[in-house]
Recover the amino acids of this structure.
């Protein structure tokens, strides 16, 4: 019996040149979250051209394409579309020089520094191949292009705009992400894969005074310094060594001059955890420490806490992950791996949760294999290999695209080709 994946992917050579051009075009023309109008139109046009029933504008710029092909399972594959406010420093001939304006009207560079251009291209490639070889599979394939993953609000925007009414209910949701592994690599992981992420803005209040008269002040700078140091003890002393978590203070703002003690300070921090119990414990410890340090300093007002962003944990369902891992092992051989736990975060899981269905999410590599091997040989991977969100992050075109197209196709056919 002919392998459906081999049959569908036999057309990859024919679509490869157009996919490479699409990828370079998307990389050259990135768009920030909920502004992905050009990207969404290109995706929608590509899906319509190969016979998909397309709905645009879901949650602002989201797109779904549905290809019904007889009775069988419904598989939804998702790709995120948005870029980041980063100035590209790759030196590539198709590098982004795009800019936009922020909320204050200031010019802002834009770059696909996380690889979402890879994700869109690979999903479009898979969609095209599935349409070309309909005799090899049965069921319904749904391509979902999601906006604003980086801001953590794109999945929710599509759901709030009626995604579960506008798309058929899938039996499984699939997604992938390009990461700083060698191109050609695919990696699955059952259970916890990506962390939950919570960003907090904490305002502590003091009493301002002249810098030469500290006795008249309650110094929020000193208060903040004590808080920052104390927060580091949460992971080090309140969690078991086998419980992964990260607490990072990324920003502290206070004062306007060297000889003025201000009356407040703002601390911004980010928390990464992998299960709800640890998440609650760490967030409660942060609040306890901040309140205690403010009381110890004699703060005149209670501190203020604001949750600025929040991403759920990405916890892969066991059965679909096993099924995809088996399919990857059969197709990719030694290039199929179990990927390590990642500290990045995603909002994908809100989509299958809204439908009440399982999901699995995997990694593909995007780094030149020889470059990665040399860095690994020298023990300098963390220094020499750019990671996602870096101004130097740029997946090599091949074999990254071939791997990504093949991975989505093989995974989808684990349901549709059986």
């Amino acid at each position: 019996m002919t392998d459906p994946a081999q049959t569908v992917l036999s057309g990859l050579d024919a679509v490869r040149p157009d996919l490479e051009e699409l990828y370079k075009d998307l990389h050259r023309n990135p768009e920030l979250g909920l502004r992905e109008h050009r990207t969404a139109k290109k995706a929608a046009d590509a899906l319509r051209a190969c016979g998909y029933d397309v709905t645009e504008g879901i949650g602002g710029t989201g797109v779904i394409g549905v290809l019904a092909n007889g009775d069988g399972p419904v598989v939804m594959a998702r790709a995120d579309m948005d870029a980041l406010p980063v100035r590209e420093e790759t030196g590539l001939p198709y590098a982004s020089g795009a800019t936009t304006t922020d909320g204050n009207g200031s010019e802002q560079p834009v770059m696909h520094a996380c690889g979402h251009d890879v994700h869109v291209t690979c999903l479009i490639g898979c969609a095209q191949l599935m349409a070309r070889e309909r005799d090899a599979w049965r069921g319904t394939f749904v391509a979902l292009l999601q906006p604003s993953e980086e801001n953590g609000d794109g999945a929710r925007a599509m759901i709030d705009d009626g995604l579960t009414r506008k798309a058929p209910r899938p039996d499984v949701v699939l997604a992938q992400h390009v990461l700083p592994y060698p191109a050609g690599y695919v990696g699955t992981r059952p259970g916890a894969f990506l962390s939950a992420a919570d960003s907090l803005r904490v305002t502590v209040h003091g009493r301002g005074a002249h810098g030469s008269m500290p006795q008249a002040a309650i110094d929020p700078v000193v208060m903040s310094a004590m808080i920052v140091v104390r927060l580091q003890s949460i992971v080090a002393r309140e969690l078991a060594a086998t419980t992964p978590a990260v607490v990072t203070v990324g920003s502290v703002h206070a004062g306007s001059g060297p000889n003025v003690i201000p009356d407040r300070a703002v601390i911004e921090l980010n928390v990464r955890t992998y299960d709800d119990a640890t998440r609650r414990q760490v967030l409660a410890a942060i609040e306890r420490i901040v309140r205690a340090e403010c009381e110890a300093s004699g703060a005149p007002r209670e501190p203020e806490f604001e949750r600025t962003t929040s991403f759920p944990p990405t916890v892969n369902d066991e059965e679909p992950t096993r099924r995809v891992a088996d399919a990857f092992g059969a197709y990719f051989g030694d290039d199929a791996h179990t990927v390590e736990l990642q500290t990045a975060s995603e909002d994908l899981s809100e989509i299958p949760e809204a439908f009440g269905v399982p999901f699995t999410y995997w990694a593909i590599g995007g780094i030149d294999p020889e470059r990665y091997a040399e860095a690994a040989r020298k023990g300098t991977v963390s220094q020499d290999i750019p990671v996602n969100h870096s101004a130097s992050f740029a997946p090599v075109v091949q074999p990254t695209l071939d791997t990504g197209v093949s991975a989505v196709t093989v995974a989808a056919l684990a349901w549709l080709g059986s």
The longest helix spans residues 276-297. The two ends are 11 Å apart (CA to CA). The chain has a mean pLDDT of 97. The chain has 13 helices and 18 strands.
